[in-house]
Amino acid sequence: MARKIIITCAVTGAIHTPSMSPHLPITPAEIAQASIEAAEAGASIIHLHARDPETGEPSPDPALFMQFLPVIKQSTDAVVNITTGGGLNMTLDDRLAAPLQAKPEMASLNMGSMNFNISGSAGRVKEWKHDWEKPYLERTVNHIFRNTFQDIEQIVERLGKGHGTRFEFECYDVGHLYNLAHMLDRGVVEGPLFVQTIFGILGGIGAEPRNLMFMKETADRLFGDQYVWSVLAAGRHQMNFTTIAGMLGGNVRVGLEDSLWIGPGKAATSNAEQVRKIRRILEELGNEIATPTEARQMLALKGGDLVGF
């Protein structure tokens, strides 16, 4: 029987910089357009960051989010998922400013503090558009993304219990699954959990198929029928890993936040191009793509009429 697969599209993120791709959405208008195109291509969830429209630098400014969130809502039925990870060197209050104002149906939530090293990207860029980009990448050799147990509980309390937002629990390593199980056992969070297993970030678990299987087996053991499983992989691993996930009945995440590529040595020209490709693969594997309504039912979301934008 056909399985319903949720496609999430992460349209811009805080990892890639403008010099890495001319197709990376930067301005609110570009982010809105990329989101609408991704939804039309088949993404039922759109994961969102904001950027300074002049420099492309990741920004936590709620005013920037509010320039594209209403446009996306008016133009699509897609579930809007706002980051609580923000960008490098943002405080917890910075990271929560926009989601607390927007009160989205979903938000991302990293399940632990971790080394997060993307400095290697700097060596692959020949010309820089902005002065901030190269130092931003290079300093991650000494960067720790902080999300302590207290931070996680505070996000759940303020955003989840405060506004009915549910979470995309981002698990970059096996320990993050156990952190989430700890929160579930204590009643801090409740099912159905949307568990995003992430592969290929330096500082997290490597992008090897055996690791994908081990992460799934561990999540099955820890969460049983209380979770919905999804997979994303960084860079060149994106399509391979999401294809494996589709073969196993898992949900998937693509988008220019996670990878700038559409195939070996070929740059993606849009988020929608990546969505169309994985949708074709998933459908050829015998799956059906979940609509936003079906995604809301699977994840027990509050509905688009209860958000703050």
UniProtKB/TrEMBL annotation:
InterPro entries: Aldolase_TIM, BKACE. It comes from Sabulicella glaciei. The keyword Zinc applies. It comes from the Bacteria. Pfam families: BKACE. Its cofactor is Zn(2+). This is 3-keto-5-aminohexanoate cleavage protein. PANTHER family: 3-KETO-5-AMINOHEXANOATE CLEAVAGE ENZYME, 3-KETO-5-AMINOHEXANOATE CLEAVAGE ENZYME-RELATED. Transmembrane segments: none annotated. Keywords: Metal-binding, Transferase, Zinc. The keyword Metal-binding applies.
